[in-house]
Amino acid sequence: MVVAALVGCGHVSKRNDGNASVGGAAASGGNGSSGSGGPTPSGGAATEPPACSLSAPPEVPLRALGASALQNELAQLGQSLDGEVYPEPSSLIYDDQEPNASATFVSGHAAFVQGLARRVTADAAGLGKLLGCDVKAAAQKCQAKLFEFVVARLFRGQTSAETEAELQQVFDMGQGLVGDFQGGARAVLEVALQSPEFLYRVEVGRPVEGAPADWSRPTDVEMASRLSFLLWDRGPDDELLAAAARGELTDPADIEAQARRMLADERARAGVRRFYRELLRLTGAFPEGHASPELTPEIVALMDEEFNGFVERATFDGPGDYQALFSPSSWLNGRLASYYGLPGVKGEAFRAVELDATRYAGLLTQPAWLVRPSSATWTSPSTRGWIAAGAFLCQVAPLKPPDAIVTVQPPQEPPALTTRERLAEHASSPACAGCHQLIDPIGLALEHFDGAGRYRETEGGLAIDTRGHWAPSGPTFEGAAELGALLANEDTARSCFVSQWARFAFGRAEEQRNECARAELLEQFSHDPSVPELLVALTQTDSFRFRKAQP
């Protein structure tokens, strides 16, 4: 049933590991050609010789809305969501585990949307403003507007005769119980906000004429959602839905044109923020009791704004290339600069600030992620290294190391040993050495940044040693600045960066069969390291334009 309530149901996995391919190759950008194996979408009939053979299209997992996308979609109802608490629906797509939602989410979300629907419909004038009609004077017109809002905004264009019949049934029941239009509207919103069409990115697909039976492609409406959630972290706007209605989201040139329009829109900044926040595990609330007393909620909020502003500026307000992510700069206001001990920044407004190139390396040294695993007396270099090695090098130690690698207890008194020396004693254990050799050198390169995110030269009066290397025998570095320079220029890190965006775009981990697509994306990225151009190229891949047919 289209609007079946989620209450009492489980959460469908977002990953299907039976076929986790990234798919075919990216177009070289600008010409609209697919440049990859699989069917040519133009006209829906022809096929082309594959430049890189893809034996089967990728299976597409049923993806639930992430926490930020859910917030963005709920914001369409015009109610303040500040301070509202309801459980987050899923784990990060970078984790090697099946994302799922607990019964807590199911019941918590149900209670939350009941209250939200009540607030939306409490005032007839406010409800009429949301729908663009007069609830008291034109109830029939407003009912049509209500259904249009649900289908276009909440169901993201997905509709059928069954949908309309069910919406009418729910409206009639709600109106009958309460006795007015607002009661019917409240019932519709309550059910719609718990439905699979709202909480999941539902795709069915359609056959590809002239292709094998297992090849399918998203419908134009489904493609609108693929684009909008990748680039905006929210559902499609009116222009995307109108293009879908005209059948203009099938040809790769049309998809590219929409991608470029969307990247030029301010809403693209939200999609970029979400990627980097997930990449460096900046989701959810700040962990209480882990940081210095000086690291107040106000400072944490300013650090998050610094992080968001930095990645937005690095992507959109300049050349937008990969190297900009590791530039010695940040996004600061006077309050935060004073906290860091950086002179010359005044006022409440944030602005771009150039920093000491011997100390800072852009994204790598952003305090917002460095302070999350730390405490007042312990920087947790192993956890920092685990996060950074996974994010920038795709070197992922067995999942669950955070529980093990933080078992070194922070000192209760001023340390007689540096963090490096104490960690070396722990990591020398044969059971621990394998993982620590991968992650510790990277985490220790960041030791000049204390648990509260501020630069320091010494630790407890002892000199800090930040030398390290990429395990097992990679290049050496000393400190965050040298490590950042390596990440900005090494092929290993560039390849990982492309892989991370592919995972983010397609919602699944990679397998060997992805090498073909990754090679072509990397080839383009080596010629043009523009992050926006990489995003355009991702929309041209077979994995973005096609899917495995539903059985």
Write up what this structure looks like.
The chain is mainly alpha-helical. The protein has a domain at 63-201. It has 23 helices and eleven strands. The chain has helices at 67-74, 103-121, 124-131, 139-154, 161-178, 181-192, 196-199, 220-231, 238-245, 252-263, 268-279, 297-316, 334-340, 367-370, 381-393, 401-405, 419-427, 430-444, 479-489, 491-506, 515-527, 531-538, 542-545, and strands spanning 63-64, 200-201, 206-207, 215-217, 329-332, 351-354, 458-459, 462-463, 467-469, 476-478, 547-548. The strands form five sheets. The protein has a three-stranded antiparallel sheet with strand order 3-4-11. Helix 8 packs antiparallel against helix 9, helix 17 (419-427) runs antiparallel to helix 18 (430-444) and helix 19 crosses helix 20 (491-506). The chain starts with 62 loop residues before the first strand and ends with a strand. Mean pLDDT is 82; it is low at 1-50 and 399-408.
- Ranges where pLDDT stays below 50 over 5 or more residues in a row are 1-50, 399-408
Oligomer: single chain
**Percent strand:** 5-15%
What gyration radius follows from the Cα positions, in whole Å? 25 Å
Number of strands: 11
Strand order of the largest sheet: 3-4-11
Which of globular, elongated, flat, extended, rod-shaped describes the shape? Answer: globular
Query: If helices are DSSP runs of H or I spanning 4 or more residues, what is the number of helices?
Result: 23
Share in helix: 40-55%
Which structural class is indicated by helix and strand composition?
Answer: mainly alpha
Distance between the termini: 19 Å
Give the rounded overall mean pLDDT.
82
Taking the sheet with the most strands, its summary is:
3 strands, antiparallel
